[in-house]
Design brief:
4 copies of one chain form a homotetramer. By secondary structure, chain A is an alpha/beta fold. Chain A has helices spanning about 15-30, 70-75, 85-100, 110-130, 155-165, 170-180, 200-205, 220-235, 250-255, 260-275, 320-340, 365-380, and strands spanning about 5-10, 55-60, 100, 135-140, 185-190, 210-215, 235-245, 285-290, 295-305, 310-320, 345-350. The longest helix of chain A is centred in the C-terminal third of the chain and has 21 residues, at about 320-340. The structure holds nicotinamide-adenine-dinucleotide (4 copies) and sodium ion (2 copies). Chains A, B, C, D: Belongs to the myo-inositol 1-phosphate synthase family. Chains A, B, C, D: This is Myo-inositol-1-phosphate synthase.
Chain lengths: ~375, ~375, ~375, ~375
């Protein structure tokens, strides 16, 4: 490994996940915490020679101005970050805070201009910090489901629409376009559209950058991705699978919006059928319970039948801290996208399915199969 | 495949598991039910050319006299077997009933004589039914933990003890000895000692037969064997794992005996440390709740820590019908042991770990790894 | 007690609840089962001298033709009714079956004619069976939320609308009108409108009959009605209460219709605020899971704060057989409405709140308070 | 109300519950928190004219020396006390800390001397702080089940044993004796023996003081005390009730000792049979899970049968902070014992059953009945 440094540019840089990433990275590199929860610290991935944690530099876009130090204090009160850490990381958080630029909101500027401006921010960050590469990770609020538009279908159609002053992309895709334009890798940790449009795939190809997504797999879906294969391995037929997710915080409030919820729920439902080989009855609810803050409680109930058709059932309750679960995966993804870029890989990265509810370029949802694929890919030479 | 037939000789042949095996096999081969729950019917194992279900012939030992038809009716009332099936299978159950011989209970006869008598029963069964091979499966009541005895350590010590009129073996080991003496494969679906004594391993070797065990993995432990690796794959540290099992029926009553419970609880605890790589705080309880009959409710609670040490938790409740879960695995094991015997394999079979809480000859407890090993072994040529 | 007999006329007489009522009453009076689940068999209510179970005669309306014996067989397969009971009760079910008349569906006839026809059926039943009184209980499918109509506001407006050939009432209210017109008491076990319109209240008054409702309290809401007061008694502040109800069967299918669900969910939410004295965050979902049949699984999650504001939580899972829980309450209500009618009480009966999610004429939702009120009312002389 | 002040003397004054009492009382009287969780602040009890919170003065005995401020900081880290409160209450905690005297441990001194010494501490406290009355509350570690001794049976036997230099009492009873000797009321919040020996009852009578207990009802048993009556009110027969309690902290470690656990489990089981009128199958486990600290997770599973014997089930999971739940009840009890003493009541107080798993002088375990009795007693003039 050289002493090259890599930029991690967060969209939604003042949100819960992003602040946990910033505080955690500062704390770990300062020796104040072990790298728990980081998949990329496992011995299996040692051969991948990933960028060291201390060589990651943070920056990003957001549309609010709240100081990271203040968000970190709130997260400490909520039990996401240890109280004792605040003093240790506040200087580093202030430095990161100064590298956050104003983001993009629909209607505030011409979309073509926005792409240029945001790409400029990323390029300036790379230059100012002398970075070898930049990885852009979207951890901003989930968007409503997007209406189809002809300009999504091809890059030239998109460029014509832009030339005509139109704004056919959702914000997440504007950020993806900016990343690609700046030559940066992009990964979408949210269920938003991001790079998943033919026009943007072509843009990534044009700039020769890799990308990945979508929607970090941190809770209920993670558990599903080992339980569903368990039933299949035992020839037990899953007959229904219902789930309820209770959460508060910024994410809870966003997802309470039925349209955003729809986007999330779809992304959650997709994998089950793929793992079981047949459709399964059962709704998934996402409810905003302000009182729960950053903590999520998910309850799943499933029925299955076995020998001679006998019906049985299983329930589980998952009580996780969403930002704690997401933050290390964001860091993992930054290191792995950096690897892909270093190796010159371009386009969608199906080998990262392990991290996602809705993996691009892959129908494999079984966790251990995904883990095998990931390890193989990362350690290939 | 030739038209060879294989005998499945059940120890505890009138118990819940055995009766479900008998009724289920009769119903499936009569076309009255699909082979749900049978791992050996999966496409992955098609290449193994296992003995067809219709070529299995049942018999066994038990120490009670209750007719199988009566046990089956009780199981139908308890929802284990469909009511409608009773009429369809009663003739076949009567035929099986006639092939059950009186078993062995400690103190009823000299142990050396018992081995001879029981082995004679198995040989007579093979002859009467013109069987190519016999597989003996222990599904009798779980025994108390066994006191060590010098004769366990070597076959010649055992034979000297027998010659001296001693009875150093628990009943499960007497059955294993009888199976080996009759040239039959043996597999222990219970946590009892069975073949797991050096003296018996030598006996199996002398007769050139394969054997497997122990303790069928059907509920809580099955779920553990996918959840523990999930946490490990995500670098989440499991900190405690407590479990409570409520069950009634014959098995519930037996395990209420603190000594037998000890034997079962030990067998359950063993795997967790192996999967996680470190010991984990947390007791496992088994309670007899007569009202639950053959249905088991298990509740597990586990705590884990992630990024920056944040504590989270998960609970699950498993509501399974134990006999429904166990019966197809007993049939699977009969077919797989038959395969091993046909291939001339001898001694313990670590490749069968997929089926067991306490797999002989293996420290691998992760379900999908066990599934891979099983498939590879079964389809190797 | 004289040997007077009372008619129990069920709207939805071929449904799950009605069939369980019919089979259960037949079985209990034949001595084949104890009167478990019947509140009116408690010693506290002995002083009320209620009509004996053997003096209840069943009849009713439905819009399907399925024989009760067939429905009972389905319920036995589903574990609602013991299999062994079927033979014992089939003759009595056939007799009840002959007393079921064709019901009313919107649009099939002029509403004024329908009321006359249905009232005629009830009168004919009373006469044929020499009944002292008839109680009509609505256990038909839950209706969608009803659109307001000016004719709901007063009996004369309703009669003018009828005279003009209009059909302003939902079916449940048509049945209530028919009951009142026939001089029968009426009670609504469903969340439908039933008698809860000023016009119908006036009709009940005109005919001098008592009525009650609405929406039988059998599961999640029953538990709520003791837990919420528990928190209040301990000065613990409930902060959120979310619930998910999974059920199949006819009721599950009906409630899957979002409009009917709305009617049910509203009825469920009402009480919590009344018991706690402040509004509480938290949605209630009702999902149709066909695989669950007549069994309902409800999961509730609630958060509360105590000393110094510390947050805590509780979850419960209720796994009940809805028809088993509802049927004895229907019988209880028939006996209690019969008592009210015998005593000459008229109009809404707030003392029956114990049985309902949405009690008419009462804001008391605390179960034990309701129990006290019920006992006092029933045993008053 | 006059401006009389009352002493609250805590046995185990440096434990979790006691520290939460001290910190909470300081915070509430300083205006830093609302009196949430305090039953004695309910409007129903306003008529009782209880001693104001600001007129309670704390002191106590303990056998360790850890400063209260340090224990409070640990409780803040564990989420029991808000972090922000620490600065506000530290002076008051230091003052309380200075009023804690060295307690008594078996074998450290002659038991008769111990009673004198401890009573002297209580008298000195009353004098130094000019208190009108003192209430002693035992919140020290639960003792093992006590072996019977003839001196327990009568006060003169006890005094003879003491005179002979014997030490027949467990520590909790030594404290009760000291309280009575000092003319103070005594209440046992633990399942230990405390005042529940004929000899001590006579001592309380001799000194004319009231006393109460035993074992604060804060979690699983609280819920039981509303659910069991719910099933009874609906004529549903509870058939089994199994419970598992997971907890860490000092209390978890103590109860992991099987003998202490026995004492607690017995106290928990007693009420169920009383509420249901028949014995119920089902064990209660208490497990020490260090990782849970002061937080307790209890899981209960119960089966019941209803109409026609149909079996159903319910589960609940309670996740409470034990010290948060206990502390306000300790304050409530101090105020209510003070009331009893002020009124000149003596001997056991059955009207306090609302607070206890194992209420002295009462077989009423139903929460709302207990609440009614408490309110009636407290507001009687
Ligand atoms: N935490 C998890 O387990 C998890 C898992 C999967 C996906 N996600 C997704 O990650 C995202 C972040 O979650 P969170 O809890 O941090 O949410 P959050 O609400 O705390 O933070 C979102 C941030 O995005 C910012 N933002 C909103 N619109 C923006 C825009 N147009 N441009 C730039 N910034 C914008 C907001 O100002 C806010 O700071 C969400 O979309 C969530 O669904 C989280
Ligand atoms: N069902 C499961 O999920 C599962 C999983 C793992 C292990 N097991 C084990 O399988 C075994 C069978 O379970 P079950 O539910 O059928 O129990 P069961 O009590 O219904 O049946 C046990 C049978 O063994 C017979 N038996 C007892 N002692 C005997 C002896 N000395 N010789 C011959 N027969 C004897 C009994 O008479 C009875 O018929 C138990 O040991 C159980 O622990 C079951
Ligand atoms: N079971 C419970 O715990 C419970 C609790 C509260 C309320 N309820 C209510 O009780 C009702 C009955 O439940 P169920 O499980 O028996 O449902 P079900 O679907 O099995 O039966 C409903 C019956 O009503 C009949 N019906 C429909 N429209 C009719 C009409 N216009 N006239 C006459 N009959 C008509 C149907 O043909 C059917 O036979 C539902 O409304 C349900 O919401 C049940
Ligand atoms: N918190 C609850 O919900 C609850 C409910 C019912 C009962 N209790 C009981 O309350 C008691 C206190 O619980 P905790 O969580 O504070 O426990 P803890 O272990 O934190 O505190 C107990 C304190 O008692 C002290 N102690 C031990 N032996 C003593 C002695 N001989 N003399 C004086 N002090 C002594 C210890 O030093 C310690 O400071 C326990 O017995 C517990 O079982 C608690
Ligand atoms: Na795998
Ligand atoms: Na009302």
């Amino acid at each position: 490994m050289t002493d090259e440094r890599t930029g991690l540019w967060l969209i939604g840089a003042r949100g819960s996940v992003a602040t946990t990433v910033a505080a955690g990275l500062a704390l770990i590199t300062a020796g104040g915490a072990a790298p728990d929860g980081l998949v990329t610290e496992q011995p299996e991935l040692a051969g991948a020679h990933l960028v060291p944690l201390g060589h990651l530099v943070l920056g990003g876009h957001d549309v609010t101005d709240v100081p990271l130090v203040k968000r970190a204090a709130q997260l400490a009160d909520a039990g996401v970050i240890p109280h004792a850490a605040l003093a240790l990381v506040s200087d580093e958080l202030d430095r990161t805070c100064h590298r956050i630029r104003h983001g993009h909101r629909d209607g505030e500027e011409r979309q073509a201009d926005a792409v240029e401006r945001l790409a400029g921010d990323i390029r300036a960050f790379a230059e100012a910090e002398s970075l070898a590469r930049v990885v852009v990770v979207n951890v901003s609020s989930t968007e409503p489901v997007v209406v189809a538009h002809p300009a999504h279908a091809a890059l030239d159609a998109l460029e014509q629409a832009w030339a005509a002053g139109e704004s056919p992309l959702p914000a997440s895709s504007v950020y993806a376009a900016a990343a690609f334009t700046a030559g940066a890798a992009f990964v979408d940790f949210t269920p938003s559209t991001g790079a998943r449009l033919p026009a943007l795939e072509q843009l990534a190809q044009r700039h020769g950058v890799p990308w990945g997504g979508s929607d970090g797999k941190t809770g209920e879906t993670l558990v599903k991705s080992v339980l569903a294969p368990m039933f299949a391995a035992r020839s037990l037929r899953v007959r229904s699978w219902a789930g309820t997710n209770l959460l508060g915080g910024g994410d809870g409030a966003t997802l309470a919006d039925p349209e955003a919820m729809e986007s999330k729920a779809r992304s959650k439902a997709r994998g089950l059928e793929a793992m079981l080989g047949h459709p399964v009855d059962g709704p998934v609810h996402i409810d905003n319970i302000a009182d729960l803050g950053d903590w999520k409680t998910a309850w799943d109930h499933l029925t299955f039948s076995g020998f001679l058709g006998t019906r049985m059932s299983m329930q589980f309750t998952w009580q996780g801290c969403d930002s704690s679960l997401a933050a290390p995966l964001v860091i993992d993804l930054a290191r792995l996208l950096d690897l892909a870029a270093r190796r010159g890989e371009t386009g969608p990265l199906p080998a990262l399915g392990f991290f996602f509810k809705d993996p691009v370029g892959s129908d494999e949802h079984r966790l251990f199969e995904q883990h095998r694929i990931l390890t193989e890919w990362a350690t290939a030479s």
